[in-house]
Amino acid sequence: MPRTGLLDGPGFWERLLRLLYPEKCVFCGTILPETAKISTCKVCHATLPRYGRGFERAPHIPWVNGLFAAFVYEDMVEQAIHAMKFFGRPRTAHTLAFLMWEEMGRHPMTPDCDLIVPVPMHRRKQLSRGYNQSGIIGQALGEMLDIPVEHALIKTRHTKPQSLSTREERLTNLEDAFRVADPTVVAGRSILLVDDVATTGATLGACARALREAGASWIFAAVIAIAGK
Fold it and tell me: Does domain 48-226 have CATH number 3.40.50.2020?
């Protein structure tokens, strides 16, 4: 069951800090009360482009038994994810993880998973950015769902960004680009693979294949947003 205690409002020192540096909605920039639990205003929260399908089969993504997307990758969600990834806003990942958790709660057919595994970055890219947003999302989601998080996957080579690739390139760009550091961590386990966005599903498929070849029994995937729907 979810650990709802983690959803309490900010503590004293956090509220004090917000008096000096007000918390803002990650979608529209509206200044929020210092007691706000998440960085989202009521208007944006109500109008987010929810995907609303729960976990569904994704036959276009090999090795994945089911896919969950919280939102459609458009408008305010696309802008927030873009800012999180490219404009140094890692804190946005915590809000997006909460919103993913909240959307999961709307759908009772959520699979039981033993581990959460975030999609990794190549070490060069992570050093450049300073953080892996999927790792932050996965860690926060794991705390809310009370599921252990293992950074079991390694990206073994630097690849052309998927966002800059054609559809055909995306499907071949990531072949053999991931491996499991220690197969005993995932062997026989049901895995929830976490990423920020699913477009063609090539990244999720490549990661899922590495997990399955390392012995994982079931692989489900969860993303903040899905493109092209």
Answer: yes
